[in-house]
């Protein structure tokens, strides 16, 4: 008899040791995650800094609408990607740190799909300059001139001998016929000086362009089929020259001459190299937030978070006593894990995201509250504190599961439907659901089971620390 | 039990509140911000605020159409204005900027937002669709999760009631927003939509927790009875019928009491966090937190005083109609 008892005690002792060891492991884990967040915050050269949204860091948010009406639907996605690359190259020359350029498609909820380009420039508050810089990228087009229509219009002011002429608006009577050959087929452009042959002035600055393979073929076809006609070159809707096609041109090389000065030709070549836009774009919305305003919003959001965290922990401790303290530690673990995830994924923090995080502090303890209430019932019914904790978790599980799954489903749908700002909120919300579940099931459970066992009939301080709150029946 | 005994009063209050909210929203409407309507917002601050009349008369000459000019005081104590206009082209923006900047000394533009009408409309559509889609998926999931307890009310009833409670929780803060928009000029922006979405999540979670307890207690207090019946195809199959050892109303009542402390405590912790956000979180998220505070209060009320009384109400109606058809 005594032997068996002894063995039981030993087994119980080593089990308790393992539980304490687990608890220690969880605490160390929280400390490590917290340390990771702490060391990566505030310093300039942090490896994983927080990614602040424009409303917190200050900067400009530009939305361009692309006119894809003249493009075959199958090609739209490709061309939008080309457009993005082109704009990205231009934006990169600003020297802005971490600009974002992305394509956004208005999804299936509206009848007409609108293709948009979102440009985010952190730290840039001089939006006028930014817009001008982005807009400077030229749209290069080649159009055939319908001589009959031209004469019918009898526009005396149009000279077709390589002199810069104002373009006519593309109306029904327009003498210009789209060839489909645009800047998207461009491989490179360079400043050259004309050698004085082919009717050009000697030493006139010109821009020589090289098409890519596809563009070269197209150029050859056009020049072969329309030998003798004039091919006008349009830059941003303005005709800059309209040379006559003397013969089919193979090899994909062409020259733009338009009475440029050397400076102008150089700038044009550079701009063309940076990328002629494959589709015309128009600025649809602008948002600029000054850096000081953003910083203020950030500081207040963080203060609200700290105050909120303190108050929630205080409430939990007052109401649930010892388990409440455990829930507090678990909540700190939740915050540390969330912040670490924000850094690692990375999630762009906005004012809305920050507000969502503060809100989630209150909701994240819900699983704890559910378990503690169940635990209290079991404890008052005479179970010891460990058994009560185990049963509390087991019984509360179905409620935690169903509540969290519906929340997670909502978050996924919001992420699916939402525009970028709603997406950010949905991501924070969804992460909060998963992480709060982990913190309740892992941190709270492990720590609770590591605490010394107690029973309601033992009138010790410890037993009172378990029995908490108001009794409802 | 109190909540079940006075269910008709509680449901009556809920119906009155929902109808009242509906009337408020219907008559006052929401004061939609430029996020939805399209338009421009320019915020400027000065060392000393110039006279409103002078600035107005200069702005009048720009031909911007209707605009509103409101005094603001930023948190550093700098005076300024918020100018709201229709959405401006790049050229107009430059002109407006130079006018407001030259009106006072040490002037800076702290914020500029311009949103095209298409983007605004799209946001409105998307927000609506998101709410509808979320509601549908919730009905489906709850109906699935409660399929084990389809007696005495079908499992889809739980899903349906969850959505009714949700409707209540969303319409009440929307009415408050309409009132604030009408009397205080507060604008409903994207943050308002996000607050509603968060209320939605909170409300569903809250209702499901109480229903979960109902589910558990139903399983505890029911007795299975298996009988062999001959189906229409002549095959004999086992049919399980249930009888409850306690009245359904009592089971629901007990469930509400058992989850009452949890409902209250979770709303307290959430409200505590939101109150912190309201008072120290700054102006940007103040409306957001206020809408959520109202939503959480509504959500707590609906899970205790609407969802469960309604469950009992429907169950009794069903029993009554079954008795008549028999």
Q: Could you explain how this protein is built, in words?
A:
- The complex is a heterodimer of chains A (473) and B (326).
- Chain A is of the alpha+beta class and 473 residues long.
- In chain A, 55% of the residues lie in helices and 16% in strands.
- Chain A has 13 helices and 13 strands.
- In chain A, the strands form 4 sheets. In chain A, strands 3-4-2-12 form a 4-stranded antiparallel beta sheet. A 4-stranded antiparallel beta sheet of chain A has the order 6-5-9-10.
- Chain B is of the alpha+beta class and 326 residues long.
- Helices cover 66% and strands 14% of the residues of chain B.
- In chain B, a hairpin with a 5-residue loop joins strand 2 (68-73) and strand 3.
- In chain B, helix 6 (117-145) packs antiparallel against helix 7, helix 8 runs parallel beside helix 10 and helix 9 runs antiparallel to helix 10 (286-325).
- The interface between A and B is large, with 78 and 79 residues.
- Strand 12 of chain A pairs antiparallel with strand 4 (108-115) of chain B, so a sheet runs across the interface.
Shape of chain B: elongated
What can be said about the biggest beta sheet of chain B? 4 strands, antiparallel
Count the E strands of chain B. Answer: 6
CATH architecture assignment of the largest domain in chain A: Up-down Bundle
Number of domains of chain A: 3
- The number of E-state strands of chain A comes to 13
Based on the structure, what is the oligomeric state of the protein chains?
heterodimer
Q: Low-confidence parts of chain A lasting 5 or more residues at pLDDT below 50?
A: 1-8, 155-160, 162-172
Uncertain runs of chain B: none
Into which percent range does the helicity of residues of chain A fall? 40-55%
How many structurally independent domains of chain B?
2
Biggest sheet strand line-up of chain B = 2-3-1-4
Following the backbone from N to C, one meets helices and strands of chain A in this order, namely HEHEHEEHEHEEEHEEEHEHEHHHHH
If you average the pLDDT of chain B, what whole number results? 85
